[in-house]
Amino acid sequence: MTQIRLIYTKFLFAQIRLILVTRIIFIFYILSCGSVLSGSSAFTQNANIDSLKKVLLTAKQDTNKVNTLNTLAWKLKDSNPDTSILIENQAIQLTQKIASSSQDKLRVWGKKSIARSLSNIGVYYWIKAELTKAVDYYLKAFNIYKEIGNKSGMATCLANIGNNYADRADYSKAMDYYLKALKIYEEIGNKKGTATCFGNVGHIYSNKGDYTKALDYYSKALSIDEKLGNKNDVARHFSNIGDVYSDQAGYPKAIEYYFKTLKIYEEIGNKYGIAGTLNSIGLIYVYQKDYAKSLSYCLKALNINEELDNKNGIANSLSNLGNLCLYQANYPKALNYYLKALKIIEELGDKYGLSTILGNIGSVYYGQSDYTKALNYYLKALKIDEEIGNKNHLAIFLGNVGQLYITTGKFAKAEACLIKALHIDKEIGAKEGEMYREKWLSQLYDTLGILTRSGKNLNLSGYKTISGLTAKELTLKAFAHYIKYIVARDSIHNDENTKKQTRTEMKYEYEKAQIVKENTEKEKKRMEEEKVSRRNKLQYSGILLVMIVLFLGIFLVVRRIRVQVQSALNTRNMRLTTGALFISFLIFFEFILVLIDPFLEKITGGAPAFKLLANTLLVVIIFPLHQFLESKIKAGIFNTDEEKLSVKSSSTFFKTILFLFGFMIISLFNVSFIDKKDSLKAELQKNIADTSRVNTLLYLSHIYTVQNPDSAVLYSTQAKEIAEKINDRKRVVKALRELGWAYYTKGDYPNALHYSFASLKINKELNDNTTNATILNNIGNIYQYQGDNFNALDYYKKTLKIYKELKNNNGMATSFGNIGNVYGSQGDYPKALEYYFNALKMDEEMENKHGIARHHGNIGIIYYLQTNYPLALNYFFRSLKIKEELGEKNSIATTLGNIGNVYNEQEDLSNAPDYYLRALKSDEELGNINGIARHLGNIGIVYRSQGDYNKCLEYYFKALKLDEELGNRIGIGRHIGNIGSLYTTLGRYKEAKQFLDSALVLFKILGAKEQIKNQYRYLSTLYDSTGNVRESFAAYKMHIVYSDSIHNEENTKKQTRTEMKYEYEKAQIIKAQEEKEIMRQLVAAVGRRNKLQYSGIMLGLFVLFMGIFLFVRKFLRQNQTALTPKYIRLSAGVLFISFLIFFEFILVLLDPFLEDLTAGAPAYKLLANTLLAVAIFPLHHFLEDKLKEGIFKTYV
């Protein structure tokens, strides 16, 4: 038995030694990993890793060691993922023993720990871009989590698998896994996980180019994490949103979100996040060609990453610096930065980063025309992306290779690469990539068409594989792909606009509901205020009635006392009645103060000293009444000589009172001052006859502006000359305005602007803001009709600003409408609707039917342009109904014409002409030649739709004739273009060319880009009809060039405005902070003033009371018995007034507490004041007795 036991003991010790040795070796291994890492600043700088090493040495329980190993591996994942994998495997080995434990709790913990380690290893392989291995480990972890029923772990694994497929650009599989994870997270109520999944889904949509959905999911994720207070995640979502705007070239918005991100990272001290965000900001400035700023931010990011020894971050910063140099065509420097980044990325084994940097190096060599090296690097990048299955990058680099082959003349290879790239783009739903590939295919076929047409020796590599097509056929292919490119581009833009518009409509409906809610709340508040007012009135009436009863009661008591014979009781009764009278007067005094308080507040500005002064004056007025009633009461109780006091004594008394309070009144005037600001406005009176003549001429000009603008020019010119002669600058301004408007009606925009600016210059000197707003609005109209939307928008916004300052709601509503018009003409329909709905909301609040009708019409136009014809008709008919009620004949014609347009687009050829004819008839009655010309043109369009070309031409020429008479060059150009287009349809190509060329020349002279764009489209159709494909394609490209020019100008200027707005808002924030600080200082100053004045008042009261007793002492020395009654009255009066002031002073100090206590109810406040008066009276009575005893001891 002993032998066996001995053997067993030896075996046990051997096993223990083996375990200890194994663990010591393992710990030594971990520490050796640490010592290797300690050479890097990342490890030494990270106190957490150092502390983990210590924990690992001292940990006794296996569970603690496993947790520490997990944490350590996770900390090292970015800098050394291979080491993380080794550590995690050691953790698994250590955990397997725990997982096989007989204890359920330990076994479950062990399996959960193994699953966590497997999942972490999946992450580390994901960092190494070994995606297949990563997915294998995630699936192993998922199965264990599923076995133990750990749903949170299952969801995490599914989300990680989604990440892997997302990196391969296999978006459908990625989305599938994300949605599975999301479902579990929502089931178990894991909000953090839900937010992460929303963010991941957002990434998928962003990569596919569906930016609206991307923003939607990022916003959902942001909302959850903001509620949870996850600042790090909030910052990440802001950054993702910034990326979306960056991808859409919305750089100002992107920078706005990146700065939000940066602010949070700085608050929480996340240096990795700070560096990454600085890189993002630097990249935006690269895109904006602000290279100095870009360099500054990239270098800041590089410095932080170097401090952290964050190799990924360093590589990213170097890559961005390379991008900066590449954009500047500084190829040697760009190559230097890229090669440095490449070296680090190769060390890290980051295959994603490797493919990106290789592609960038290829772009450098492409820029240097070193096509062999460029191709070599592009192909290296392609090979890596094929290995890791990154479809998004595959499409991009195939596209780059295709472009390179076009440049080097290898057209067959170019075609193959571009078609393959296009196929991948369509497969993964990358709309933006699809757009670029269509564009480059168009470029390829266009180049081939040019070469074929030129007849040169085309013995180029690979050309024969595409050969067999004629130049015309190649150009047709180029044309077809170009149209697909435009469709794809517009699709991206229109998707955004449609969704944006939906949000605007929802916002309008919400705000409309809010208005109803606000009105309901206002009505409820008004009724509550009325209720409080009725309560207060009732209580004030009750208080007044109680006071009347109180005074009557006092005198009834007095009458009863007079009947009594017990003179011994007279003294006590006198005390009671005079006390009741004193308290009644305190209450009466406070009652009057409550009633007049709002007026005192306005007069005194809330200054305690001034309020006290007013209260003192009120006391002086009240005191004689108190003195009179008190003397009557005393006379009623026992006969004295007091009632024989003469009027002369009373007069002396008042003089003495005024003298005693004089010093106090004078001192109060020294503690404040009154600012008075006087502003005078002068208007010149002119010769009545001349001014009347000017007014008449201007009135005539106004009438003829629409009917005959040439006559309007004549009349307003005469008015200007007379006004200048009599030096009536105001009327000169008006004449110049009318001239500008007349030229605007004629379509002579340069002259219209000239006279409008002249009127503005003079009017600014007159400081007439209302007229300034009108002129600025007119200038906006002129620019808009010139197609200069940027300047139009600028002047409309200047107009809006003035109207806001003037609080002119009508003007504001009009400006909102005009701004909507600009956005409408830019094709930014959601923005247009937003402003139209703002205008509509304002006019609905004002019940301005004219404005409501106008805005309904404008909203109808937007829906018409969006081909939403039912909604367009809905709003047009709403507008028409109101206009007919108001009798607005001029605008009725416009609305009828718009309804005709909708029916024409719907090919409702019965209703369309009917409404056009009604519109024509209305304008003929009004003599509105502009409108008549427009309707004639529209009727011509209907006849064209019906195929009645002769009738169509007849109406076109009628319209042309009228616009020629008016000198309306825009109208002339439009009709000539329509006639040319019709001649194309009729096969009269020579005439069509003449008319279309004439229209094009006219619009180029006028600088009307919108119309130039349309003429090129007509010319493209003409050339296509004649079989001249090359010219047709060229004209169509010019049509697109002008479309893009209009769009790009607006975008550039919009960005400038956004940057200015950003700077302005930043300045406003600083200003608001400064104003807040000024207000704080002002509040502090007012507090100090009040404290000082309260101290002064207290000192004044103290001096007053001391003065009374000094006066008594002086009286004792004089001992003039004959003057005793007078001094009794005088001292009692001064004491009474002092106590009233003292009473009010205490009430002022207690007012905030009483207000909270009584909720402002007069009855409760009066009750509190009464209790205070009752408390004060004994003190008053005591002092009054002492005074009387001091004057003569036996009087009472």
Task: Describe, in short, the structure shown.
The chain is built from 46 helices and no strands. It is mostly helical.
Q: Which structural category do the helix and sheet elements fall into?
A: mainly alpha
Total beta strands = 0
State the helical fraction: over 70%
Q: Biggest sheet, in brief?
A: none
Shape descriptor reads flat
Tell me the radius of gyration: 45 Å
- What is the residue-mean pLDDT, rounded to a whole number? 76
Instruction: List segments where confidence is low: pLDDT < 50 over at least 5 consecutive residues.
Output: 1-45, 457-465, 501-508, 565-569, 638-688, 1192-1196
Tell me the fraction of residues in β-strands, as a range.
Answer: under 5%
Distance between the termini: 123 Å
Structure annotation, total helices: 46
Task: Describe the model.
- Helix 11 (211-228) runs antiparallel to helix 12.
- This protein has 46 helices and no strands.
- It has a domain at 564-672 and 1094-1191.
- Helices cover 86% and strands 0% of the residues.
- It is mainly α and 1196 residues long.
Q: Any chance you could write out the topology, listing elements then pairs?
A:
Blueprint: H1 2-38, H2 41-45, H3 47-58, H4 62-75, H5 81-99, H6 104-127, H7 131-148, H8 151-167, H9 171-188, H10 191-207, H11 211-228, H12 231-247, H13 251-268, H14 271-287, H15 291-308, H16 311-327, H17 331-348, H18 351-367, H19 371-388, H20 391-407, H21 411-428, H22 431-454, H23 471-563, H24 570-604, H25 608-637, H26 647-669, H27 688-707, H28 709-725, H29 729-746, H30 749-766, H31 769-785, H32 789-806, H33 809-825, H34 829-846, H35 849-865, H36 869-886, H37 889-905, H38 911-926, H39 929-945, H40 949-966, H41 969-986, H42 989-1006, H43 1009-1025, H44 1029-1118, H45 1124-1158, H46 1162-1191
